[in-house]
């Protein structure tokens, strides 16, 4: 195919994406900008500029991958979260804007100046790095059971030059023994095994181990709420993301484990998304 102009390339890709993506135009823009290495305004300033033959080929390959269902983040290799550019891989969940609600609330807590913070199941390192990038005095630890995730999070940390953060391999709390944290956060797996949402869209390309939990999606949340009691300072906070229909059940788990000040927080779409509670051991 002869090289297209930017405008033509965008229009033909967006047209092809309409059948498979709710964000067809945006997908086309993000892929094209990645191929030409420019920022968004370039597309509107130079719509008649022609792609080079190499750019045309690269763009066609990227479009074909998207048409096969692959998430945009996997095709371009990164995703922005909390304005941090994070490398992603099929080893972890792709960070989602919903999880920024958790970061926002963690940052609003009145913690000691040199607070110790733990992010369980850190994946790309998104939550840990966002917190460490905002609060230079916090000592943030991110952990993940999967070695590839720990390496990915460390790669992101190095690229972002964030110093007050470390990543360790741990199956929830297995690598910790006597440490105490002022704040423990997590976006654990919480989707039910037979949720039809799992066979549609981007989630098909993400690891099930990061998405699905037994016991109606609540098994890992229950484990974390239970075990965190040993690792929280008195008055320490536990802040967990969960499904928007799980708020009542999650609050009940916190209550059953004798946490206090239990509170549910809504995400930007107005859905119950995060539950916060304190432990007075
Ligand atoms: N919110 C994500 C989704 O619905 C799931 C994230 C998770 O399980 N922790 O795809």
UniProtKB/TrEMBL annotation:
<dbReference type="GO" id="GO:0032259">
    <property type="term" value="P:methylation"/>
</dbReference>
<feature type="binding site">
    <location>
        <begin position="121"/>
        <end position="125"/>
    </location>
    <ligand>
        <name>S-adenosyl-L-methionine</name>
    </ligand>
</feature>
<feature type="domain" description="Methyltransferase">
    <location>
        <begin position="114"/>
        <end position="252"/>
    </location>
</feature>
<dbReference type="InterPro" id="IPR019874">
    <property type="entry name" value="RF_methyltr_PrmC"/>
</dbReference>
<keyword id="KW-0489">Methyltransferase</keyword>
<dbReference type="InterPro" id="IPR050320">
    <property type="entry name" value="N5-glutamine_MTase"/>
</dbReference>
<comment type="similarity">
    <text>Belongs to the protein N5-glutamine methyltransferase family. PrmC subfamily.</text>
</comment>
<dbReference type="GO" id="GO:0003676">
    <property type="term" value="F:nucleic acid binding"/>
</dbReference>
<protein>
    <recommendedName>
        <fullName>Release factor glutamine methyltransferase</fullName>
        <ecNumber>2.1.1.297</ecNumber>
    </recommendedName>
</protein>
<dbReference type="InterPro" id="IPR004556">
    <property type="entry name" value="HemK-like"/>
</dbReference>
<feature type="binding site">
    <location>
        <position position="172"/>
    </location>
    <ligand>
        <name>S-adenosyl-L-methionine</name>
    </ligand>
</feature>
<feature type="binding site">
    <location>
        <position position="187"/>
    </location>
    <ligand>
        <name>S-adenosyl-L-methionine</name>
    </ligand>
</feature>
<dbReference type="InterPro" id="IPR002052">
    <property type="entry name" value="DNA_methylase_N6_adenine_CS"/>
</dbReference>
<feature type="binding site">
    <location>
        <position position="144"/>
    </location>
    <ligand>
        <name>S-adenosyl-L-methionine</name>
    </ligand>
</feature>
<dbReference type="InterPro" id="IPR025714">
    <property type="entry name" value="Methyltranfer_dom"/>
</dbReference>
<dbReference type="GO" id="GO:0102559">
    <property type="term" value="F:peptide chain release factor N(5)-glutamine methyltransferase activity"/>
</dbReference>
<dbReference type="Pfam" id="PF17827">
    <property type="entry name" value="PrmC_N"/>
</dbReference>
<dbReference type="InterPro" id="IPR029063">
    <property type="entry name" value="SAM-dependent_MTases_sf"/>
</dbReference>
<keyword id="KW-0949">S-adenosyl-L-methionine</keyword>
<comment type="function">
    <text>Methylates the class 1 translation termination release factors RF1/PrfA and RF2/PrfB on the glutamine residue of the universally conserved GGQ motif.</text>
</comment>
<dbReference type="Pfam" id="PF13847">
    <property type="entry name" value="Methyltransf_31"/>
</dbReference>
<feature type="domain" description="Release factor glutamine methyltransferase N-terminal">
    <location>
        <begin position="8"/>
        <end position="77"/>
    </location>
</feature>
<dbReference type="InterPro" id="IPR040758">
    <property type="entry name" value="PrmC_N"/>
</dbReference>
<feature type="binding site">
    <location>
        <begin position="187"/>
        <end position="190"/>
    </location>
    <ligand>
        <name>substrate</name>
    </ligand>
</feature>
<keyword id="KW-0808">Transferase</keyword>
